[in-house]
Structures are given as structure tokens and as C-alpha cells.
Amino acid sequence: MELANDDVYARFDDTTGALCELESRRTGWRIQNRPELGRAFTMLVPRPDRRNNAVTAAQPLAAIEQSPDGLRLTMTWDRVQPEHGGALDITVVAEVTLDGPTLTFGTRVENRSPHTVEHVGYPYIGDLPMPCPEEPLRTMTRSSSGIASESLLPRFTGRFGYWGLEQPMQTPEDPITPFLLIASERQGLYAGCHDTSEREAVRFVCELKPAFELGFSEDDGMMSDAPAVDGRANHLEMATWHFPYAAPGVTATLSPIVLAPYIGGWHQGVDHYKAWRQTWFERPPTPAWVRDIHSWQQIHINSPEDEVRRRYSELIEIGEECAAHGVKVLHVVGWTVGGQDSGNPSHDTDPRLGTPAELREAIDRIHQLGVKVMLFAKFTWADRSTDWYRQEGIRHAAKNPYGDPYFHPGYQYHTPTQLFGINTRPFAPMCPMSAHWREVACAEFKKIMATGAAGAMHDECQHHGGACYCFDPGHGHPVPAHILPGDMLLSAAFRGIMAAADPEFLLAGEVCRDVQMQHYSLSNFRITNPGHIAVERYIDPFALLMVTVTALNDRNTLNQCLMHRYVISYEPGNYKGRLGDIPRTVAYGRKIDNLRRRYREFLWDGEYRDTQEATVTAEGAPYPHYAVFRHASNSKRAVVAVNFDTARAVTLAVTVDGGGELLLATPEQPDPKPTAAAIELPPGMAAVLMQK
Fold first, then answer.
1. Are 220 and 176 found together in one domain?
2. Domain region containing 266
3. Same domain as 408, residue 271
4. Residue 364 — φ and ψ, nearest 5°?
5. 676: domain CATH number?
6. Is pLDDT at 143 greater than 90 in this prediction?
7. Are 361 and 471 found together in one domain?
8. Which end of the chain is less congested by CB atoms within 10 angstroms, N or C?
9. Confidence at residue 175, expressed as pLDDT on a 0 to 100 scale
10. Torsions phi, psi of 380, nearest 5?
11. 213-221 — which CB contacts under 8 Å span 24+ positions?
């Protein structure tokens, strides 16, 4: 049976339902190449005496039906046969729909067997080759700091430990946004989980079979270019792994998966995700002050090792420094009892730092200076070293299949003893699917609001330290329950408290997942890669995204902020110091914000296009370090170009779509001046070229 149009050709085996062929008709890339290596689905259905009881062999179809328009297939499998034991009374129904370049795979699992269906692998591409020998492939996905990319073919980089596998395997480590690109320089395949419910864990997995031809390390090597090696088929499999945990008597509808070939670079692949995101994303209510151009300072006042760096009353002086330097937000960390990452989830004040009244007075005084105070918050963990955890908190912890709380090793602070992990305070991830835990967290959240602060920064709101499902039958949720939907329940509860008490309160988070940005108005993260690719900014040109700036002369990170419309968060001394400790960084950051204010129709209110709609070259070669903004009210464009080399100047040739004369401005020389399309950019400098 076939699904075909001008973009895609797909053929499914009439007997097994395996995807036998998949071709991008625009380029000729046979994404599923050899029909005999096509696969339908796999399952894991543990038995009491055999946990690894998998369904891997081809299963005969019970029915296959094509819609009258020829664009939808419905396939049904009955009584699947696992590797061990008899056939199981399980029905799988897959509906595959072709719409333009996208194939959407919807799946339903009806489990009438006495066992739980833990895992379903669907859809499968059983033989995914390079488009041609000159087009190596990489995987690309959004991580906690831009795009994360790994080599796929012919060099394959694994992700799992060798001891648990027969073949090398790769999957994104940090699926902040639920898509994967398999990309060459000129085309690729988009794979996306198009479901905001986060009903089950979903991972995209690539597996190299049978093994490396040439190994560089235990998880890094080269694939043979022969179709078979040592008598075995040589191929790359790509699968979507779902973890529905469908119990006996349960029908589970799996999250829909989209596969779409595309032509171009990663932007064109991500455009599939952007288009789907626009169908559901709603920005939350956000105070006007945070939507404007501004910068933050983050400061730490206490840690688990009892530094007691500053009392609450001393924050007023820090606020005065912020006002003097034009910094509009003071983000206070370690203000709670025990210091940062101690005593969680308590958000009580610490008597060593002052009284609750002193904290409220300091916040009020700082607000009078025109500086907003944000307070650090943490609801992901409980501190396992506290009496509260042992007596109460353990009941709310996420439990593993063996009934034990999941474990996070905690973070080390300052003293030699703790830096070597001897007395680190360990954590237990809490279960946000538990209504009782959400009540505890909401009570603590109200303590933050009672201080009079302008908002809360929910640290580590996007992950659970390795806890994925909770198996605690006392939490009132299905057993097991995927934890991530509880994050939205918790932030919705926070939003309800805010709406009743202070609608202007700002809820911000760290490295928020896309779905969470419907509740969190701002997300902060750290740029950890010099080749940072701003995929989150490309996905949402107007999201409030904030980046940490720490170095004494941190021009490169500040230039990233200018180039990608990031809010600046000054964190001198890894957020233990003061603005006066980094005078050159603060002075340059202020120039950047002033430049953004002057040309905000481009640089703040304009639409971010990354490297689309302009071309920049250096000595005739493509130059990557630039971004394009489209004017807020017309089609004119501005190009922000940056020289990250701190020793050598670079000569750039800039071509902007639509052509025309260009004006040049820089943070140091903000007045616009006519310029040629070729400019010399000194070391560590940024320039803005605007269509006149």
C-alpha cells in the first residue's frame, strides 16, 4: 500500500505493515532504503519470569485500509507474538496520514493481556542511509543551550554505555523540545512529537547495526560503506520509543509522531515544528516592565556551607548599585533557610540573614529605586538531609518501580569538604503529579509572594534529575504516571495564586520546555558552546530569554545577547560578586542595551530570522556569526554581525535580501552612518547594518 504526493513517497508492506520505502521526491533521497529492512513496530511486554520479553519479529496484519483520497492508511495487528510465551491479546492500530511533506503516525494500543505494555517502538525507519557519499548526516535537537548536534553517518557517536547494548545507540540527551533533525548540509528529515499533553515519555533513537567498522572509542566509530559486513546487513535504524505503560484492560493512545523530509538547513527543518507550535502556543500574561529592554543582576547570599554572605538589609546597597548601573532587576539567590540548595522545599527566611520584616523592607526600598527584586525558588527537589523530608517529604517523592525515592546527588558549594562530595546534601525529586505535593509547593510559593517581591525564578523547573515516571500508588495518579504533565499542573496552580494575589507578579523559569512557556514569562539559561546556535530564539522570535554573563570582559557573551535578543543577566564571580567587580562587562552591556533602545524597531520589536534573509561572507567563505532582524512595521532588515576572535579583525561582505543602501551603527558608535556592504570588524566587536 502506498501514500504518495509531489513531496513524499511511502510504501507499506501489505502483509506486515512495515514501512518498506520512504523517499523525498523533491531530492530523491531514499530515507527508508532497502525494503527488506523495513520494520513496523516493537514492544516490551514484561512477564513475571522474564522482564525482557520483547515483540521484535514482524507481525501479520489483521487488516489494512486506505482512505478514498489515498492519503491515509489504517493498519491493525491482533494478538501479537512476543519472543517468549504465547501470543498476547493485544491489538495495535496505526493510522498514517500524508499531508504535503508530512507523514503523521497515530497509534492506539488495546491491551487485553494480563501484562503491562511498557514500551512501543513506532514508527521505524529500518535502513536510513546518507543521501549520497558527499552528504554526511548529523542529528540536531534543542538542548539546554541551543542546538545539540552529534555525528550520525558515516561517523556514529553513541550515547549509551556499551555494557547494556549489543550495537551503538544514540538518542538526544536533553529533549527540551520534542523534535529531532537528521540533517545534511542541504536537506534532512524532521521527526517531531506533536503532542503538548506529554502523556508518555517519547524518545527518538538511532541504532547502528551490526557494529562499528572502525572504532575510535567504545561509543564512537565509523560505519562501513558496504551494504553488508561479515554476512550481516549494514544499516542504521531510527525509531520512536514511546513508554505508555498500558496496564491490562487499558487502551493507550500514543502521542502522534510526524516525519517530514525538508530541503535546506536546520531552519527549514525547525520550520515544521514552528508551524505546529503556532497552532497551540499562547503567551502568558506578562508585566510590561519585563517586556521592555532591561538587564538583571543575580546575587547569591548564602549556601549549604553557611557562608551568610549578606543580610537582607545589605541587599539595599546592592539595589543601589543596580540603579546606578541601569540594571533593572536584582535576582536574589540563597535567601531561604539553609541557603541555596539546602532545606528544600522550604521557602522560609533564614534568621541568620534577618527577619521576614527586614526582607520585606529591603525589597520595598529597592523597588523604590526603580529596581525589581526577583526571588529564587525551587520546587523540583526535597533535601533528603532534613527532618521534614524523613517525616513528611518522602511521602511526596517520586518513586521508582521498586518503591524507593529517586535519587539526585545534589550540588557542591565552596568548602573543600563539600567540593569533594563528602558532605553534599542529596535530593529526592518530588512528584508533581501528586496533588498533595502541589499543595505543599503552593503553600511555599505563597511565602515568596508574601515578601512583596516582583516575581519568582523557578530554578530547574524543566527536569526531574533522572526521574521520569512515578510508581507510588499513594499519590492519586495512575501507576505509573509520567511526571512531566505535573509540571504544567503545578505552574497553573502558581498562576492561579498570582491572579488572585498580584497579577503583576512575574513567574520565570530555568531552561523551560516549550509547553512550559505558556505559564513562565521568561526563561534563563547559560551559553555553554562557543558555536551556540540560537534555535530557541528562532522558534520564538519574541520570547523573553535571558543569558548569564560572568567574565571580567565578557564581550563575546554580550555580543551573543545583542545578536540573539537575549536579556542580560550579570553574574560576577559566578553570581557571588558585585557589579563593580566587572566594570568593563557592565559598561559594554549598558552600551548594548542603549543600542537596542535606539533601534528597538529592529533589535527588540523586530522579528528574529537568525541567518535567513541575508548572507555574510569573510574572504569569500560563509561567515556564521550574524543574525537578521526584520523591522517591526516594514520589510526592512538589520544584520547584527559579531567578531568573536579577540586577536584579529575580520572583513565581512554583507548582502541583505531586497538590497539598498545600508547604515552602520555599533555599541561604541551608535549614530548611524552610511556604509558599504563590506566592513572591517575589529576583534571582539559587534556591528549593526540596517537597510536605509
1. yes
2. 2-277
3. no
4. -60, -45
5. 2.60.40
6. no
7. yes
8. C
9. 61
10. -80, -35
11. 218/158, 218/162, 219/157, 219/158, 219/159, 219/160, 219/161, 219/162, 219/168, 220/155, 220/156, 220/157, 220/158, 221/155, 221/156, 221/168
Would you say 501 and 487 are in contact if contact means Cβ atoms under 8 Å apart? no
> What residue spans of 18-158 are helical by DSSP H?
none
Neighbours of 72 (CB within 10 A): 17
Tell me if residue 286 falls in helix, strand or coil.
coil
**Cβ neighbours of residue 331 closer than 8 Å, sequence gap 6 or more:** 296, 297, 298, 299, 373, 374, 375, 376, 457, 569
- 583 in a domain, yes or no? no
Cα-to-chain-centroid distance, residue 243: 20
Phi, psi dihedrals of residue 267, rounded to the nearest 5°: -60, -45
Task: Tell me the CA distances in angstroms from 256 to 195, 252, 489, 558, one per residue in order.
Answer: 6, 12, 22, 40
Neighbours of 560 (CB within 10 A): 23
Query: Any residues with CB less than 8 A from the CB of 644 and at least 6 apart, and which?
Result: 530, 556, 559, 625, 684
Give 525-554 as a DSSP string.
Answer: E----TT---HHHHH-TT-EEEEEE-STT-
Please state whether beta strands 232-233 and 228-229 pair in parallel, antiparallel, or not at all (unpaired): antiparallel
* DSSP assignment letter at 684: T
For strands 102-111 and 251-253, give the pairing: antiparallel
d(CA 576, CA 414) in angstroms, rounded, equals: 11
What is the overall mean pLDDT for the chain?
96
Read off the pLDDT of residues 151-167 as tens digits, 9 standing for 90 and up. 999 999 998 888 899 99
Q: Is residue 538 a part of any domain in this protein?
A: no
Q: Give dist(CA 396, CA 390) in Å, integer.
A: 11
Give the count of domains, the chain: 3
> Which of 80-94, 136-150, 343-357 has the lowest average pLDDT?
136-150
DSSP assignments along 601-612, one per residue: HHHTSSEE-TTT
Q: What is the DSSP string of 384-438?
A: TTSHHHHHTGGGGB-B-TTSPBP-B-----SSHHHHTTSS---EEEB-TT-HHHH
d(CA 373, CA 371): 7
Claim to verify: residue 366 and residue 504 sit in the same structural domain: yes
C-alpha cell of residue 168: 551503538
Residues 169 and 296 in one domain: no
For residues 484 and 432, give the distance between their C-alpha atoms in angstroms, rounded to a whole number: 8
Assigned C-alpha cell, 511: 531552561
- The C-alpha R_g of the chain, in whole angstroms, comes to 27
Mean pLDDT value of segment 595-619: 98
Tell me whether residue 514 is exposed, middle or buried, using C-beta atoms within 10 angstroms of its C-beta: 0 to 12, 13 to 18, 19 or more: buried
- Helix, strand, or coil (residue 98): strand
Burial status of residue 391 (CB atoms within 10 A of its CB: 0-12, 13-18, 19 or more)? exposed
**Interatomic CA distance for residues 242 and 319, integer angstroms:** 49
Please answer whether residues 150 and 157 qualify as being in contact, where contact means their C-beta atoms are separated by less than 8 angstroms: yes
Neighbours of 443 (CB within 10 A): 12
Residues 258 and 300 in one domain: no
The verdict on residue 558 lying in a domain is no
135: left (phi over 0), alpha (psi -120 to 50) or beta: beta
**Interval 524-579: pLDDT, tens:** 999 977 789 999 999 999 999 999 999 999 999 999 999 999 999 999 999 999 99
Number of neighbouring beta carbons within 10 Å of residue 387: 8
Give the end-to-end CA distance of the chain in Å, rounded to a whole number.
56
Beta strands 381-383 and 427-429: pairing type? antiparallel
